[in-house]
């Protein structure tokens, strides 16, 4: 990397740290779709997964490595030879591969997690970074829980990692414990004690447990860090990671006090936010900075009045800057392909011909059932489209439901499971219960339904319903989502989507088995 003095590299870890959040499991095709968008947006490094965690993770990193055109593709590995080699096998086909290896360095991590003395940690770091270098020139190393590591030991271990060949040193605030002044001070101290740091890239990786992840990352940048690790929508373990959109827009809006640039095309931010929210099943809070539904909404009279006179009165950035284009055009059954293409592009999406054709067919079906198709309807269709893939374990083929005042309600479902079709009938306490019971006969499981939520996409009785289903099995959580004008069909598809994710989740090792 040849980083200009004022350039900040964006390292996205939505597919690794983001996917580690409970319930955010993503399928291979979903991961590929997100990775391609990150690549198009100008993300410098994509952390695509943790190859040793499961065969699915390995495959995802390996497949992503093959399709990414510009970004570097990185895989995570613990400080073990087997992890590092597995990681290399997953990224070796990338145009620009990177191995990211880490070990816990704080007293708590040394004693309880890795169970190694300081000396042993030092030996392990030297050995594993050296080993990673035998495969790959680009090696990133992280002292996990760096912000709670004794400063003198942090300096010693970072120095050694550089000596062993690390080309990026990442300083994680693993538990979201630091604060801006301390974050800056840690980075400055490392620069002043280790002159060799000036020749490589220093990175910051913050968690948001105290709501300071973005502030801590920016403080690290001001102190000399030139790589920020972040995720779309701040997705991540517990309270999440630094939000990519916040870093990129803060650097753009406050050029006057933070004169740093990124390679990011900010006009794709809203698209990325929507895609990650759909795929992970994690809604974006309404007042989320930059990408929340209300981030550009002005409700109070004084604000609306000011906005009409000059948008600068209450707006520090424009909706268009993040790809939000206001459109008043309501679509209907007479709207053609060209209108749909224009509308989709105004909404911030860039679809290929096949994707557009598929969407057009589904748009026509919707327009036959619903007089007016609003932006929200199209976004729900797009979201549903991104979930529909051929690599699904279970697929809904047909559904018939009998419901009404006379119980029991019954459902007849035809489902394709691993390519074979099954039809079953079942009854239940209401139509959704009957459908879920039928699906459970075809795919028996012991997962517990934790959350079932229906949300009307627009107003009106003909509105589409978006259904979210969260399942829990042996402490593992998954979330599925789907939309349809028929609420029961949307429920069936959301349930199937969550079961498909459960199948993927079962293949992953428990986080504690891969954490140290
Ligand atoms: O938070 C953390 O410490 C991590 C490391 C693996 C970099 O995610
Ligand atoms: Zn992390």
Question: What would your notes on this structure say?
Answer:
By secondary structure, the chain is α/β, with parallel strands linked by helices. It is built from 18 helices and 14 strands. The chain has helices at residues 14-18, 28-41, 55-67, 81-91, 107-113, 118-135, 151-163, 180-193, 213-222, 244-253, 269-280, 301-309, 337-346, 353-369, 375-387, 431-442, 487-506, 511-514; strands at 9-12, 45-49, 72-78, 97-104, 139-144, 168-173, 201-206, 227-230, 394-402, 409-417, 420-428, 448-456, 465-473, 476-484. The strands form 3 sheets. It has an 8-stranded parallel β-barrel with strand order 1-2-3-4-5-6-7-8, surrounded by 8 helices. Strands 9-10-11 form a 3-stranded antiparallel β-sheet. It has a 3-stranded antiparallel β-sheet with strand order 12-13-14. α14 (353-369) crosses α15 (375-387). It is globular, with a radius of gyration of 24 Å. Zinc ion (ZN) binds next to loops.
Helix content: 40-55%
Number of discrete helical segments: 18
**Quaternary form:** single chain
Largest beta sheet, briefly?
8 strands, parallel, barrel
Basic shape: globular
Gyration radius, rounded: 24 Å
Which structural class fits the helix and strand makeup? alpha/beta
Query: What is the CA–CA distance across the termini?
Result: 29 Å
Give a list of the ligands. Answer: 3-methyl-2-oxobutanoic acid, zinc ion
Q: Note poorly predicted spans.
A: none
Whole-number average pLDDT?
91
| Spatial order of strands in the largest sheet | 1-2-3-4-5-6-7-8
Q: Which percent band covers the strand fraction? A: 15-25%
- Could you give the count of β-strands? 14
